[in-house]
Amino acid sequence: MMKKILFLFLVLSLIVGCDTPFYFGSKDFQTPFERSEGTKSATYDEVIDFYKRLSSEFSTISLRTVEQTDSGVPLHLVIYSPDAEFNLNKYQEERTIVFINNATYGNDTDGVDATMLLFRNLAQNEIKLSENVIVVAIPVYNIGALQGKNYRKTITNYDLNLDVIKSDTQNALSFAKIFQMVHPDVFIDNYTHYTAADYQYVLTYTTSQTDKLGNYLGTYLREQLLTKVSDSLLKRQEDFQKIADSLLKRQKDLLSGKNEQKIAQKSFKPKRILMNDTITPPFWRIFPEETPHSPAQAIDYATLYDCMGIRINTHVKKPYRQRVEANYEMMKTIVEVADRDYAYIKQLKIKQKESNEAQKNYAFSWAIDSTQCVNLPFYTYEIDTITEVVHLNHQKPLVQEVAFYNRYKPTKSITIPQSYIVPKVFQKVIDRLKANNVQMTMIDKDTLMSVVRYKIESFKTLSSPVEGHYWHYDTHVIADTTRVQLYKGDYQVPLSQPAAKYLLEVLEPEAPDSFFNWNFFDNILTPPEEDSLYSPKPIYPIYRML
Fold first, then answer.
1. Is the Cα torsion angle 32, 34, 40, 44 positive or negative in sign?
2. Alpha helices of 341-404 — where are they, by DSSP H?
3. 8-state DSSP, 466
4. What is the pLDDT of residue 282?
5. I want to staple 61 with a disulfide (CB 3.0 to 4.6 A). Which of 55, 88, 292, 351 is the partner?
6. Prior bond to 282 cis, omega within 30?
7. Per-residue model confidence as pLDDT tens digits over 371-395
8. Within its chain, how far is the Cα of 476 from the centroid?
9. Closest residue by Cα to residue 45 from 149, 120, 155, 179
10. In what order do the strands lie in the sheet with 133-138?
11. How far apart are CA 322 and CA 280, in angstroms?
12. With contact defined as beta carbons under 8 Å apart, do 80 and 119 qualify?
């Protein structure tokens, strides 16, 4: 009997001491993260090899080579589809599509490892879903930086987090093309938060600006999706605590000799669930934003296409294992909610589209609405010492209430035109419109046309370059109606299309991230040599048709 008790005790000890929260049926699909007990991240070659093997073994996984990057290495796209149908166009109206992006910076490997675990567990049916969700991911976005190990920016020294709109990199142009191909409902952007700030959280997250997203989708993201994710994560913690308490009790019973016969009759097998929770609560929180979001960043670029964006930030000061596990749990929970709510999400997208089409005006500048504020608990630590920096005492956790402002109000709007005219000579602009799947009609002959044109009244310019640009801001224009000469090959761009909000953000010169402000039209700011003594107001060369 003592041998049986000793054997059972050893099994229980193995279960309780299990270092990985992720079940794997075969060692062939253990990740470098798991094999190293949570201390090692996968290299780029290991990531791609993992997905190749996964797609070869499981019919529900597909790995594609899609678009190019600045490093010369192509991007990959991995897709999980429960019925092995990988034609995304077929299911865009019927299923929720979750799109995940990893490694915008080369040292943001947490999401890379967590996504490998997510797809492996989806393939092996360890995550129980219906057939209502498709999960798509870019395994590694900034390939050159990940391969270099010491880079955050691209091999050409661009910050991909700021490049979505201006698209100076091949990576960003490729991202836009992929986004248009996937047409997601939920977008997850995984980051590692490199900050001097310190707090108890392993993971924080921000979302798309919900007021800008729209009344239907914005309200759902703010009041339902995030609430359901939060409730699921709380339940997860409670479940793990119950498991831990139960196993601890059974260990004590074995050691005390109680219930020996009852325990011996049971078959103890490793559970396909986490037995030793390494992520102690609280491990997540909403991260307050003090300024309106910009579509230059991916989660708010997503709003331009009625997609709900969530950026996951794991805290670099926490142990790597905890960060990857927290990232995994967050993504898994979002996918589960997207699966359960698929029909409602699709209904909301239809209503949001109808609402957008009925709008006569579009707001492109926003400010915090100071009348709407909630107090949230903030889990930090007591101050230990203050020298040149503040040192916190991790042995003295502290909970403080902070004011959380997450509602915004529009400060500047414009009337939405029927269409824009984009002259064919501005090829850089046209290339970016095409990458974003903008519908355009080529003018078939030279013609005079009545249009609304802008004159640049004033603007300011940064004194130092940002991402290779002397960025303009605080731009003001005046409008008049006139007849202009258009030429065969110029483009007419209607606003009655899915890319309408994108067009308003990039072609209206007063919009913060407009192509004008990113220097695409700086040639118009220099007067002709013969008029060097006379400085008329520059004519903005993109015309509006009302």
1. positive
2. 342-358
3. B
4. 63
5. 55
6. yes
7. 888 888 888 888 877 766 777 888 8
8. 32
9. 149
10. 61-65, 76-80, 133-138, 96-101, 186-193, 308-315, 203-207, 284-286
11. 9
12. yes
pLDDT single digits (tens) 464-515 = 998 889 999 999 999 999 999 999 999 999 999 999 999 999 999 999 999 9
Which residue has 């040599």 as its token pair?
Answer: 529
| CB-neighbour burial class of residue 117 (10 A; exposed 0-12, middle 13-18, buried 19+) | buried
Question: Based on the number of CB atoms within 10 Å of its own CB, is 502 exposed (0-12), middle (13-18) or buried (19 or more)?
Answer: buried
Amino acid at 180: Q
* CA-to-CA separations, 532 to 125, 427, 456, 525, in angstroms, rounded: 71, 27, 18, 12
157 Rama sector, left if φ>0, alpha if ψ -120 to 50, beta otherwise: left
The CA distance from 33 to 427, in Å, is: 45
Tokens (6 digits) for 351: 């209503």
Q: How far is CA 498 from CA 260, 363, 433, in A?
A: 67, 17, 12
Longest dimension (CA), the chain: 104
Residue 254 host element (H or E):
helix 226-256
Q: State the alpha helices, DSSP H only, in 293-449.
A: 298-301, 320-340, 342-358, 427-435
Using CB atoms within 10 Å of the CB of residue 295, give its burial: 0 to 12 exposed, 13 to 18 middle, 19+ buried. buried
Q: Residue 11 corresponds to which amino acid? A: V
Mean pLDDT along residues 238-261: 61
DSSP-derived secondary structure for 109-153: -HHHHHHHHHHHHHHTT-S---SSEEEEEES-SSHHHHHHSS-SS
Provide the residue count of the chain: 546
Helices (H) and strands (E) in the chain, counts: 16, 18
